[in-house]
Amino acid sequence: MKRILFILFAAIMSTTVCHAAMSNSRVRKETRFLTDKMAYELNLNTAQYNDVYEINYDFISGVRYLMDDVLRGEEWALNRYYDYLDVRNDDLRWVLSSRQYSRFMQAAYFFRPIYVSGGRWSFRIYVTYSNPNHFYYPRPHHYRTYCGGHYRTHHHNVSYYRGRHNHPAYNGPFRIRDNKSYHTSRRADFGSVNIRPNSNMRPDSGARPNSGARPGVGKSDRRPGVNGSTRRSDTKKEVSKPKRERSSQKESVRRSSSSSSSTRSTRASSRSSDKDNGAMRRN
C-alpha cells in the first residue's frame, strides 16, 4: 500500500512540474533521470552516456515551451513535437549500437518518453522508476555546462554524433512522423487531447509570445490601399502638393513686400528731390 501511494505521489509531482514551463535546472534534472535509466537498461559506456545526455537535453529543452500548445490541442504543435522526437531518435541511432537501439525502441518510456494524462504532460519513465531522486550513475561530466551546442542546427543540420562511435548503426525504420503508425503513436501518447479544428497551421506571431510563429503567416502580401480609392504613391503626392503651394505663396508674399518697400523708398526719394528743387527756386 505504501508503495502504491509513493508511486501516485511521484506521478503527481512530476506532472505538476511538467505542466508549467521548465526551468533550465529542471531540464537538466529530467534529462539526467531519463539518461541514467537508459544507461542502466542499455548498458551504455561512458562516451555513450555523455552523448545520450546531450541528445536528451536538446530534445527536452526544445519541447518544453511547445507542450502547452499540445495540451490546448494545437495540431501544428503535435506535429512539431514529433519532428523534435524524430531528430532526437535519429541522433541516438548514431550513438547506440544496433542491438542497443532495438532494445531502446521496444521500451516506450525511452522511445516515446512524453505522454498526456489528466490534462497534464509528464515523462513515462516515472511509471517504471517511481523514485525521482534515485540514480544509478553520477552526473555526466558536462551536466552544468552543456547548453545545446551539439544540436544539428549548429552543424548544418547534420547529426553531430554521426561517426563518433565505432559500431554498426541501426538502419531500420525509426521515424514516427513519417511512419504509417504515426496516428497510432499519437493516440497512445496524446489520445486524451482534443484537437482543435483548423489548427494545423501556426497562429500569427502576435497572438502569443514564444509560440514560434513566423510573422505574416496567413496574411496577404499586398499593401493596404492597393486597388482601393487611394494608393500610397497618390497619397504622397496629395500630401506634398499643399506644401509646394504654401511655399509659393510665401515667396509671392516676400516678393510683394519687397516691391512695396522699394516703391515707398522711391516715392520718398522723389519727394525729397522736389523739396530741394523748390528751395533752390526760392533762393
UniProtKB/TrEMBL annotation:
The keyword Signal applies. Keywords: Signal. Residues 231-254, 272-283 have a biased composition (Basic and acidic residues). Residues 255-271 have a biased composition (Low complexity). Residues 1-20 form the signal peptide. Residues 185-283 are annotated as: Disordered. This is DUF3575 domain-containing protein. It comes from Bacteroides eggerthii.
